[in-house]
Amino acid sequence: MDNLNFTTLQKGQTMVSDVALDTFAAGFRGNLLTSGDVAYDEARAIWNAMIDRRPGLIARCAGAADVIRTVRFARDNNLLISVRGGGHGIAGNAVCEGGVIIDLSPMKSVRVDPETRRARIEPGATLGDVDKETMAFGLVLPTGINSTTGIAGLTLGGGFGWLTRKFGLTLDNLISVDVVTADGELVRASETERPDLFWALRGGGGNFGVVTSFEFQLNPLHSEVLAGLVVHPFADAENVLREYRQALEAAPDELTCWVVMRQAPPLPFLPAEWHGKEIVVLAMCYCGDMAAGEKAAARLRGIGKPIADVVGPTPFTGWQQAFDPLLTPGARNYWKSQDFASLSDAAIEILINAVRKLPGPECEIFIGHVGGAAGRVPTEATAFPQRSSHFVMNVHARWRETGMDASCIGWARELFEATKPHAVGTAYINFMPEDETDRVEMAYGTNYGRLAEIKLRYDPNNMFRMNQNVKPMEAVRAA
């Protein structure tokens, strides 16, 4: 920290005094990085390579005290703040331009109490970190599908994956949080302590503070699940999707099946002649008794004439990492998402036509089936509003060359517009790109007004605005 130079750390015309900088740095326990440090470029890089911003300071926090100190420093000097957990967010809000990144990635502790079936997890932990610790005790937290995703952003925005239908969203398993608010105070929020803040944090994203610790209720799970892929030729897509839709009507909560449509990667179990060709994949997981799982998955596995069926008993931690090779950092990514109450014939036709126009070999469409336990929570119980049983579409444009930006982004936007008439209007904020700020209010539906009131109470100056931003109620009224 001897060569710290904060001359670029400013917001508008506000410069930070040398005295304030020296005082801040002297009491900081973690690492502080600026553009002159060797590790700076690596520390500002996140999963989505489209995001290339240069913060004035990266505060790599060692604990809650560092977070408190950084929030107060930024507040006192009128500096823009962004908060980084795993750095996986598609919108890139983990990195700000010219301000301060509160980098939580060094805070990775996961402590499991097997007697109470609870876990205390720091915000820098990834889903892989969580799974490794909880599954050692035959316990699990329902999370997402990519082990390198950060637990913090996933939880605050919702969190759904292979176990959601059985155990609910990640945020449904949240018991309490420690959070640093805009005034630089560390507070506890739960059903009995600041219940309004706790309500907002369960789905409201990073709008209300910086969470330094999550307490979760865990669920029992055998180390093995019945999981894998059934791969179909794209020529059979219409029949596969219609039968898939029908098969899910009687699916138990233990069974989850998602659809992926893309060009086939060179998977070892696929014949070489299929590599690079469009396919329809049914990705499924049954988290219960194996014999019951075989019966529950039989109808899905009996659809059509698949190219390959590699569904079988597999360690859950391994299944959680199965899609990691397709979601590595360093690619350019742009997503568009819709919620569907049902997968109509018209929507299926639109999806199939879009796959025929894939702009690149890594672009894909996935359809996640949710509902189950997550759908039985009342809409008003948490800030997360999408509770009715439904399908989530994620249009995942992914590519490497900047020259493909226009075609890939254009493809995603075109499909998004085409599916609007068949969608319900809400959205999963973790799937929303940075250019969808005008969609935030609609995404939260009837819960938005209460979120804006709580925002006014805890962050009236909108200091935490590098997110899918909920504006304080007074700002909403003025608009």
UniProtKB/TrEMBL annotation:
<dbReference type="InterPro" id="IPR016167">
    <property type="entry name" value="FAD-bd_PCMH_sub1"/>
</dbReference>
<dbReference type="InterPro" id="IPR006093">
    <property type="entry name" value="Oxy_OxRdtase_FAD_BS"/>
</dbReference>
<protein>
    <submittedName>
        <fullName>FAD-binding oxidoreductase</fullName>
    </submittedName>
</protein>
<dbReference type="InterPro" id="IPR012951">
    <property type="entry name" value="BBE"/>
</dbReference>
<dbReference type="InterPro" id="IPR016166">
    <property type="entry name" value="FAD-bd_PCMH"/>
</dbReference>
<keyword id="KW-0274">FAD</keyword>
<dbReference type="InterPro" id="IPR050416">
    <property type="entry name" value="FAD-linked_Oxidoreductase"/>
</dbReference>
<dbReference type="InterPro" id="IPR016169">
    <property type="entry name" value="FAD-bd_PCMH_sub2"/>
</dbReference>
<dbReference type="InterPro" id="IPR036318">
    <property type="entry name" value="FAD-bd_PCMH-like_sf"/>
</dbReference>
<dbReference type="Pfam" id="PF08031">
    <property type="entry name" value="BBE"/>
</dbReference>
<keyword id="KW-0560">Oxidoreductase</keyword>
<dbReference type="InterPro" id="IPR006094">
    <property type="entry name" value="Oxid_FAD_bind_N"/>
</dbReference>
<dbReference type="Pfam" id="PF01565">
    <property type="entry name" value="FAD_binding_4"/>
</dbReference>
<comment type="similarity">
    <text>Belongs to the oxygen-dependent FAD-linked oxidoreductase family.</text>
</comment>
<keyword id="KW-0285">Flavoprotein</keyword>
<feature type="domain" description="FAD-binding PCMH-type">
    <location>
        <begin position="50"/>
        <end position="221"/>
    </location>
</feature>
